Amino acid sequence: MANNLVDNIIPEQPPIEPQSDAHVVKARLEWGEPAFTILDVRDRESFNEGHILGAMPMPTDEVVERAASSIDKSRDIYVYGANEEQSAQAAQSLRSAGFKHVSQLKGGLGAWKAIGGPTEGSIEAMTPPGRGDYNVVSRLKEHTETQTKDV
User: Fold this and answer.
1) DSSP labels for 102-117?
2) Which of 79, 107, 146, 147 is the right S-S partner for 115, CB 3.0 to 4.6 Å?
3) Measuring CA to CA, which residue among 88, 89, 82, 80 is closest to residue 61?
């Protein structure tokens, strides 16, 4: 009985696109949408310097093995790497391993930062906070402005 109630309250997520714009992922993050994972498939040093807030490090050569042991195959997964080729390779590897909802984050970390997406890491920590970091009204204005940005 309880499962039916939950099924009716939480709508089924539409399938994600094979490639996703940074705006789509940022909107999901900001509005607290459930059940998705962001994977950073770059090398560990690049990840430590800066990455999307909450992204999991899984270098390309280990991504399938590590994802298989820690992520449900039906979960929405957004992948980004050092370039589009690395992102595409990792996404394809995950799809081949049976992950159903895998999407490349177009433009990777650069596109994410261009629209003011939150980041963390040793180099990112040196970047001064944006006006939206402390003020909800500013954050909403920033959100509206970045929705119209082309990346």
Assistant:
1) EEEETTHHHHHHHTT-
2) 146
3) 89
CA 5 to each of CA 11, 45, 79, 94, 131: distance values in angstroms, whole numbers, following the listed order: 11, 45, 32, 32, 41
Closest by CA position to 49, among listed 143, 115, 120, 112: 120
Is 26 in contact with 59 (CB distance < 8 Å)?
A: no
pLDDT in tens, 122-146: 877 665 555 545 555 666 666 677 6
E-strand ranges in 3-138 read: 19-20, 36-40, 51-52, 56-57, 76-80, 101-105, 119-120
Q: Using one digit for the tens of pLDDT, what is the confidence trace for 5-56?
A: 555 555 555 678 999 999 999 988 888 877 899 999 999 999 999 999 999 9
Q: Which fold has domain 14-147?
A: Oxidized Rhodanese; domain 1 (3.40.250)
Answer whether 55's CB lies under 8 Å from 17's CB.
Answer: no
Radius of gyration, CA atoms only, the chain: 16
Instruction: Specify which residues 102 forms β-bridges with.
Output: 77
